[in-house]
Amino acid sequence: MSQPPITTASGIPVADNQNSLSAGPRGPLLLQDFHLIEKLQHFNRERIPERVVHAKGSGAYGTFTVTHDISRYTKAKLFAEVGKQTATFARFSTVGGERGSADTERDPRGFALRFYTEEGNWDLVGNNTPMFFIKDPIKFPDFIHTQKRNPQSNLKSAEMMFDFWSHAPESLHQVTMLFSDRGTPDGYRHMDGFGSHTYSLINAEGQRVYVKWHFKTRQGIKNLSAEEAGRLAGSDPDYSQRDLFGAIERGEFPQWEVKLQVATEEQLDAWSTRTGWNPFDLTKVWPHGDFPLLPVGVFELNRNPDNYHAEVEQAAFSPANAVPGIGYSPDKMLQGRLFAYHDAQLYRVGTNHQHLPVNAARCPFHNQQRDGSMAINNGGAARNYANVVASGTAPGGMGHGEQGLALHGDAGRFDGRGAEDDYTQAGNLFRLLTPVGKQNLFDNLAGPLSQVRVETLQRQLAHFDRADSAYGDGVRAALQARGVQL
Fold first, then answer.
1. Residue 140: which of 283, 287, 326 has the closest Cα?
2. pTM for the structure as a whole
3. What is the DSSP letter of 107?
4. Mean pLDDT, 10 residues at a time, the chain of 486 residues
5. Pairing verdict, β 326-327 and 199-202
6. What do you get for the CA distance between the two ends of the chain, in Å?
7. Cα of 443 vs its chain's centroid, Å
8. Alpha carbons 64 and 323: distance in angstroms, whole number
9. Which fold has domain 142-167+423-486?
10. Is there a common fold for 57-133+186-355 and 142-167+423-486?
11. Contact, 383 vs 348, CB < 8 A?
12. Which of 245, 298, 353, 395 suits a disulfide with 349, CB 3.0-4.6 Å?
């Protein structure tokens, strides 16, 4: 197929795209060769800052189809009727690595979804795990620094990771998941996804319920062994990208069943009183026996992007993007992300990143935001201010017209460490593993733990013991098999 004639970015035909303008055949180049200058200038600026976390990722478009009526819980129009479809975009990622890192590293996987609804974009930004390492966003920069590179050696450091985790018992639940077989999923199609945080839904009567979102893969859970994940990291570091792109190209469209856990505030209060667990603590899960999964719909990916940079690298998610009928919760980590994600996109992509096609709402939108980089239409001739309503307004609630979220307690800094149970749920997860799964967990932990200081090792082993004595004993045996003296 013939290619269209080459032009400059301003549409001016290019006479010669092979030879620079020079003073004679051997002479120096001339500054007036604008095509050469424009090509080099743009090449120097091809990279936008990579994401601090979730830098390496894959994306695709799809649809969400409602299969069960949840209108009693939410007035959000995308759930209005069974059979309704909403266009979507998804981005999967590893969390800690750089853009050039391997897809098969032991790491949580990002599971970010965008729903292009008639009321605006709804972004549900989660992981392939239902819990996380920390419960307060003030520790997030510290935690992520331990997953990156040592500032002196510029190498990944097991000591940094376990020094942090061993001082943060609340991390044990997620550490157990990470070093189990699920820490190295077999591509993105064969893993579940979770909203992870507690969110809320608001119905037409203004009633609020709290929810946890689950995405159960219809392809079945498949994980890589530690050995296979390591081999692929060297032979095919883009394994997950290749698998997802190829499956969609072949018409093998991956699907996930969308499900919900639902609870009223009264139910959560009663559960918290009984268990001692904070239902808005991201290091905890809601057991399915207490809050069963309810079916909602099916999420399918069925179209690959045409351009990776424009549609995947520039995709800018934020959990603050919640449409009417969908709300937040007192989850401290969620509260931090409501600010941090949008702020990151302002820095990484630009002031008007919402104007880019992958980020733009597919419904009419209007505000008084103007100017800045990438102001594509800049509001046209519309007024760039809104008048004050002198007679006053009647606000309908805290955000999109829902009832206000009740707040309790005095403003202050509260540290529950030492008084909260950080071990039972980690032990429950350990006891769910098969004997083979437990041995893999022991071996996967023994590798990096064999590289840490004695004080760090003993502190981490004590956490395993408190979760389940068999947990600690198994890790010790795996360490001794590696020649570590205990």
1. 283
2. 0.94
3. S
4. 82 88 90 88 89 96 98 96 98 95 97 96 97 95 95 96 97 98 98 97 94 98 97 97 98 98 97 96 97 98 97 96 93 94 93 92 85 85 82 64 76 84 97 98 98 98 98 98 94
5. antiparallel
6. 67
7. 27
8. 16
9. Hemocyanin, N-terminal domain (1.20.1370)
10. no
11. no
12. 353
- Domain map (residue ranges) of the chain: 57-133+186-355, 142-167+423-486
Measured CA to CA, the distance from residue 90 to residue 253 in angstroms comes to 13
Interhelix angle 469-481/424-432, nearest 10 degrees? 60
Strands 208-217, 109-117: pairing kind: unpaired
Catalytic residue among 17, 42, 44, 127: 127
Cβ(258)–Cβ(113) under 8 Å?
Answer: no
Extended beta strands in 179-265, E state? 193-194, 199-202, 208-217, 255-263
Calpha distance 3→45 (Å, rounded)? 25
Copy the structure tokens of residue 155.
């190498």
Active site residue 35: no
Q: Name residues whose C-beta falls within 8 Å of residue 202's C-beta, 6 or more positions apart in sequence.
A: 74, 75, 208, 324, 325, 326, 327, 402, 403
CATH number of 57-133+186-355: 2.40.180.10
Q: Catalytic pick from 54, 173, 197, 342?
A: 54
Under DSSP, the state recorded for 378 is: T
Tokens of 30: 């001339």
